[in-house]
TrEMBL record, chain A:
Keywords: Cell membrane, Membrane, Transmembrane, Transmembrane helix, Transport. It is found in: Cell membrane. Its main location: membrane. Residues 66-257 form the ABC transmembrane type-1 domain. It comes from Lentzea cavernae. The keyword ATP-binding does not apply. It is a multi-pass membrane protein. The keyword Transmembrane applies. PROSITE patterns: ABC_TM1 (PS50928). This is Sugar ABC transporter permease. The lineage of its organism: Bacteria, Bacillati, Actinomycetota, Actinomycetes, Pseudonocardiales. The chain crosses the membrane at residues 7-31, 70-91, 103-125, 137-157, 239-257. Belongs to the binding-protein-dependent transport system permease family.
UniProtKB/TrEMBL annotation, chain B:
The keyword Nucleus does not apply. CDD domains: TM_PBP2 (cd06261). It is a multi-pass membrane protein. Residues 94-307 form the ABC transmembrane type-1 domain. Keywords: Cell membrane, Membrane, Transmembrane, Transmembrane helix, Transport. The lineage of its organism: Bacteria, Bacillati, Actinomycetota, Actinomycetes, Pseudonocardiales. This is Sugar ABC transporter permease. Residues 1-26 are annotated as: Disordered. Belongs to the binding-protein-dependent transport system permease family. Its main location: membrane. The chain crosses the membrane at residues 36-61, 98-119, 131-151, 180-203, 241-266, 286-307. Pfam families: BPD_transp_1. It comes from Lentzea cavernae.
Length: 271, 324
């Protein structure tokens, strides 16, 4: 037993090393100068240089990217979760002809990945006049998050006992009142899971904003990081500082949501 | 918690969709229709308008030679498809996608299972370890690409570490050597996505009742035997879903490759998606690009159908099919 745990700890140590070292390279590299990095790529900061981080934090560019990403992610998440919850409610708590067909229709979307559809989507958005518009990114992201939202929410809403609904209706509530006052609050864990998924998808998405935005004032954070890297390719230290700061929102968000995500996924994988 | 709330209520009779007067019933049926329309229409519009329409439109564009501007006049039939399939670069790109997909299953799957089993044990600091393994997964592809691009510079961080531990001999031009670049990218992909597999498998492991392991142990099964014959079969559904997502992901690979290599050098790391982007947007061959998009879509679609039919059938109750 003791021996097995030793192996376990050794493996754990290796895993942490593989994962953390690249992140440390970025964070610590931001505290060095490019000259230091060039002469000794794997060295530690000595002395610590604060100017890289200070310049990035002091530049309006970084904050604008952050704001653009946040705006788009919030719109996309809200749209996907609100419309997805409404559809999931209809598909779980109403009995009507063609219900399963509707559901199958939405699940079809799981096979249409956003990446594949981007070129036609771009042409379509151009026709709709949505280029250079945050909505041109947020709306398609919401549309592509819809299937997974419905697939996770429907079984969850189905599992809420019918007695609750009967009682609410007996008490004179309308069916939509039951949805709003009882079903949605009870579905909170699943709603959090789908929100996290939609938000992270939008936050990290690269290809669609790359096409929709030409004007760099509209760029999102992933575009900004890639652009900053190619624009300042001689200034490694500053790229590292910029990249390190741009990791913070996603990592923070993740630390807050991690536990719920594992719980929510358990439900979805097991049906 | 919920069941407690229910049992404290006095038992009530199930609700009355009782036969009411004809008028009320019809009114309530109309009302139900209206409610359904209100609930379903917005989602349907969004889904059809931004998921289905663009793909349908692409199929239409793919029959034309079109630079993206002006009317569609130059009808070429299936020429775009023939051109794509007969081109070396596109064939190469499909091959690269398949190599990545195969490597994912052969390398990442055992690694994910091992890590998940490890993280499921009672190690000290386990929750921190979980966080650490998942961390790269939440970073965007763009950030991941930039980090590794810098670390893999010739004479950079990776090279210096390798030399430091006496492996200077294996140092290569990681991103500039056509025979190496695809495998370098695979390592980066693994670094980024291993956490996702581990999340899924950990969730699956929570569904393995501890009694089963105890029973196996009582019957004299060793740790390895228990894992092999009790735990792994129960993880089957999770593993099959992971394989599905992983293959689909490999077929669509774009962001990491585009930022790190642009599909180069000399198309040695091109994928179907980078090829699509290169032609559709960089060279304004929108008709041709649409054809490539349709091909990519059909490949994913056919794979998904077959996989669903033959591997996922039993598992997907509620997850990927309509059957609850």
């Amino acid at each position: 037993m003791a021996r097995r745990n030793t192996v376990g700890y050794l493996a754990a140590f290796a895993v942490i090393g593989m994962t953390v070292v690249p992140l440390l390279f970025v964070v610590l590299g931001g505290f060095r100068t490019t000259a230091q990095i060039n002469s000794s790529p794997a060295g530690l900061p000595g002395p610590f240089v604060w100017s890289n981080y200070a310049e990035v934090v002091g530049s309006p560019q970084f904050w604008r990217l952050l704001g653009n990403s946040a705006l788009i992610a919030v719109i996309a998440t809200t749209l996907a979760v609100v419309l997805g919850a409404m559809a999931a409610f209809a598909l779980s708590r109403y009995a009507f002809k063609g219900r399963e067909a509707f559901y199958a229709f939405f699940t079809l979307g799981l096979l249409f990945p956003l990446g594949v559809a981007t070129l036609p989507l771009y042409l379509w958005l151009r026709q709709l006049g949505l280029l250079e518009n945050p909505l041109g990114v947020a709306i398609p992201e919401a549309a592509f998050s819809l299937p997974v939202t419905i697939v996770i929410l429907r079984p969850f809403m189905n599992a809420i006992p019918g007695e609750l609904e009967d009682a609410a209706l007996l008490d004179g509530a309308a069916k939509l009142g039951f949805f709003w006052r009882i079903l949605l609050p009870l579905s909170r864990p699943a709603l959090i899971t789908v929100s996290v998924l939609a938000f992270v998808t939008s936050w990290n998405f690269y290809l669609l904003p790359l096409l929709v935005f030409n004007d760099s004032t509209n760029f999102t954070l992933p575009l900004g990081v890639a652009m900053f890297q190619s624009e300042h390719s001689q200034d490694t230290a500053k790229i590292l500082a910029f990249t390190a700061l741009s990791m913070i929102p996603a990592l923070t968000f993740f630390v807050l949501a991690e536990r719920r995500m594992v719980g929510g996924l358990t439900g979805s994988v097991k049906g | 918690m919920m069941s407690a709330a229910i049992t404290t209520r006095p038992p009530t009779a199930p609700v009355p969709h009782a036969p009411a007067a004809g008028g009320t019933r019809r009114r309530s049926r109309v009302r139900t229709r209206l409610e359904l329309a209100f609930l379903l229409t917005p989602a349907l519009l969004l889904f059809v308008g931004f998921v289905l329409v663009p793909i349908g439109v692409a199929a239409y564009y793919s029959l034309y030679s079109w630079n993206g501007f002006g009317p569609l006049t130059d009808f070429v039939g299936l020429d775009n498809y023939v051109d794509a399939f007969s081109g070396d670069v596109f064939q190469g790109a499909i091959g690269h996608n398949l190599i990545i997909a195969t490597l994912s299953i052969v390398v990442q799957l055992p690694l994910s299972i091992g890590l998940a089993l490890l993280l499921n044990r009672k190690l000290r600091g386990r929750s921190v370890l979980r966080m650490v393994v998942f961390a790269p997964y939440v970073l965007s592809e763009a950030v991941t690409a930039v980090i590794w691009l810098l670390m893999l510079q010739p004479g950079g961080f990776v090279d210096e570490i390798l030399r430091g531990v006496g492996l200077g001999g294996v140092v290569k031009l990681w991103l500039a050597d056509p025979s190496v670049v695809l495998y370098t990218l695979f390592v980066v992909i693994t670094w980024k996505y291993i956490g996702f597999g581990v999340i899924l498998l950990l969730a699956g492991l929570q569904g393995v009742p501890p009694e089963l392991r105890e029973a196996a142990a009582l019957d004299g099964a060793g740790a390895w035997q228990t894992t092999r014959h009790v735990v792994l079969p129960l993880l089957g559904p999770t593993i099959r879903i992971w394989v599905f997502l992983s293959v689909i992901g490999s077929l669509q690979l774009f962001d990491l490759v585009w930022i790190m290599t642009l599909g180069g050098p000399a198309d040695a790391s091109s994928t179907m998606a980078t090829y699509l982007f290169d032609h559709g947007f960089k060279r304004y061959e929108f008709g041709f690009g649409s054809a490539v998009a349709v091909i990519l879509f059909v490949i994913c679609f056919v794979f998904a159908l077959f996989y669903q039919r033959f591997a996922l059938r039993r598992d997907t109750a509620g997850a990927l099919t309509g059957v609850r």
